[in-house]
Amino acid sequence: MPYEAVIGLEVHVQVKTRSKMFTRVAAGYGESPNTLTDPVVLALPGALPVMNKTALDRIVKVGLMLGCEIAPVCKWDRKNYFYPDSPKNYQISQYDQPICQGGTVEIELPGPSRNIMGEHLRIPLTRIHLEEDVGKLNHAGRESLIDFNRAGTPLMEIVSEAALRSAEEAFAYLTALRTVMVYGGISDCDMEKGQLRCDANVSIRPAGATELGTKVELKNLNSISFVRDGIAHEIKRQIAVVESGGTIVQETRDYDGQTGTSQSLRSKEMAHDYRYFPDPDLMPVKVDEEWKARIRAGCPELPFDKQRRFFAEYQLPYTITAVLTPDRDLCDYFEEAAKSSGQPQAAGNWIANDLLRELAAGKVALADCKMRPAHIAGLVRLVEAGVISNNIAKEVFVELFQTGEMPEAMVGRKGLKQSTDVGELDQWCGAAIAANPKSVTDFKAGKENAINAMKGFVMKQSKGKANPRLVDEILRAKLRAPSAGRMQ
Amino acid sequence: MSSDLIFKSAAELAALLETGQVSSVELTQAFIDRRRAVDDRVKAFNSFDETDALAQARASDARRAGGEMRGALEGIPVGLKDVIAVAGQPLTCSSRMLANFVSPYDATVAARLKSAGAILWGRLNMDEFAMGSSTENSAFQTTSNPWDLERVPGGSSGGPAAALAAGEVPLALGSDTGGSIRQPASFCGVVGFKPTYGLVSRYGLVAFASSLDQIGPFARTVEDAALLLGAIGGHDPLDSTSYPAAIPDYRAEIKKHRGPWKLGVPKEYFGPGLNAEVAGAVRAAIEFYQGAGCEIREVSLPVAAEYAIATYYIIATAEASSNLARYDGVRYGHRSKEGSDAIDLYFKSRAEGFGPEVKRRIILGTYVLSSGYYDAFYLRAQKVRTLIRQDFLNAYREVDALLAPVAPTAAFKKGEKSSDPLAMYLSDIYTISLNLAGLPGISIPCGFTREGLPIGLQIIGQPFQEAGLLAIARAYEQAHGWNGMNPKL
Questions:
Q1: Which candidate in A127, B17, B181, B423 could, as Cys together with A98 as Cys, close a disulfide (CB 3.0–4.6 Å)?
Q2: Does the predicted interface ipTM exceed a cut of 0.85?
């Protein structure tokens, strides 16, 4: 029997702010244990929380970017449970009035091949709310150590509807969500640093059925690939259980990405009663139209909207846009180069191919790169104007990248300006024909490729400076001429 | 000299310091000596540091000599209920749980006292985590009422009230969640003032019930209470529930309000259960105001009278159950030696660290917040709370303030109610609704019982109108000499 998977994701994203969610101490990663703490983080007797307004700004921004309805009031609740990573033994969160409700995340599924765009879907969201992160437990033998540096970091929980139908869709959803977060400056979403974490609710049902099956919650999916693999594994596991006559138990399972296996953590019987109630230490905060308008003004264009604009405005091919659009800074870089060169496609090619290659090879961040959009534009203009050949441009690219010298200056300094002197070219072409009788014969016999040997000869003679288009024209003219090689 | 000093008002002491008739070191030493002389009987102090107090006093004298006085409390000792954090001082909340805890930081009120020049003198006893009305719930000792050592000083701020009445401190800070400043003030014959919720920062006040807790002054006179309130009140960015507005100079303001006022008498507060002697003293005070030209009107607080106690014990315990979750023995505080794993460690540390009343309230609070009960208890209690506030606001359409008893009786005997939690809860019946409504209320001495026990008059004011409320209290105080009477120890 064919089955259909029903998947909902709960994604936690750390919000990038200077200080923590409810106190002035710095938020950060990689500091010595328990140094990013104060009376509030450690829940000392008498300490009180004060809301970080920047964190609220950020979640409102996410909500506006994803088309959520923004609650008129930001209300805080306490989620009560005892665990050593939670200093107060309650977490300040949002229960019945999340700051964002509804909204969608646009995703792209894999296309039939790498250079063909895949199908787009809009995955509906249930809610997004703000809360505080917990500390980190490190177990070492019989000892357990707690580091509260992470505790109190602003954390967003993004809950999707159970609208995903495959591991691939989940993968695409997370990829798209991460891109939106990075675009909005909400979070760096570095999964290795725990800035993005994902739990998945997975169930299966006979294809076409409308009732939901029993769901299993997968935890500790700590990379986007593990999310895909973990879900794929869980779907297979559930199908196997059902096919062998068993029933799915509602439980939480831990997926181990290294071994590709999962094991049960706890069953539903141990579910918590969190005793939510409004936090009396925090007054509700009004999010009025003016507030929203201010945030809206700072919302960036969404990645897929940008991609559609790049198709329409610059006629870029899909493959180039697919490389550019995940990176907002790279897109800005491209647009600057495109506008100042007047050649968006050429600029796009240089950036998507050569620039990214050099950035990766040198492990250089775009922001630190000496080659600016003006360099790309200069190079494009030089090639377009026929001042240098494409080959020369490729050759000097690495040096331009490394030194930051302007292309025009380098071409002048090195004397790379290609020759368009017809007399000079004519001489070189004549010599090429004289030196390559076999190629001449072959070309005349219809072997089109044979002309390349003669072009190569000219390039070698001219040290690359001969204008290839002119060389091609002159060679063909000479070879076509009835007198050529047959002087009578 | 020292016996003259210990019962003087803070305003008088400030004048003596100002004119150089006494130094802060001499003054502080007088209170140190007094504590040594009487506290083995009164038992108001959980801890104290004479060396530190004298060092603070010397620093104050040096500032004065150098013309660098800090503020209105320069050189004057202030005792703190053992629930307010002072950096480097113990903060026990009279609980085994925090018996060895020393605060690494200052509460906002502690920082403000320091910047007003005060000498922070002593940690004063209380009911454990401020839960109780007699200090009998202290894990360490039961404070005695200085007027009759066989009786309780009231609670939960019994230590501050008794220390002040016994002349061990000239000023003190307490906290009031359901009457915990006003009731002990009335039992001990001193002034106790609970400001409007939000007027004084709660940052560094160990939370019992966050939406009800408020720090307030204990003093010998209304003017002293105004002085102390002026030093600690006002907006604090570290407390989100702090009222974002500047406060007036209360000490100057109270002299400007002269009345006559329209005063309300809640009829429900004089029903059965009110001791006849207490009723008599309060009625006499009402007659005083009438004689002074005030218009007295009977008002009704039907919801507050009927439902305040029930509402309070749902909201307060719910908040407490969550506020006290942090005491788990992991980061600080009592840690059981028996815990087999993290959760077991919690169970055992909390079982060993908390006393019976605290456990009772945690269990009650946990219950009312539980899934399936929340709507019936907590949510409904919040709705009733709104109605209780409305009761008062309705009354304030007709009158400026309300006159009422503080407690149904004068100080009761130790052990008299400690085995009956409900009887104990009922001793807060006239004070508790103010906390639910967030209103300011003051207890001032208004007479004595035949047995020589002080009786308190409660005056209930309008939100953030503390100056007017204090002026009404001062009018009575100036016409009577109750605050000049001190217990014989």
A1: A127
A2: yes
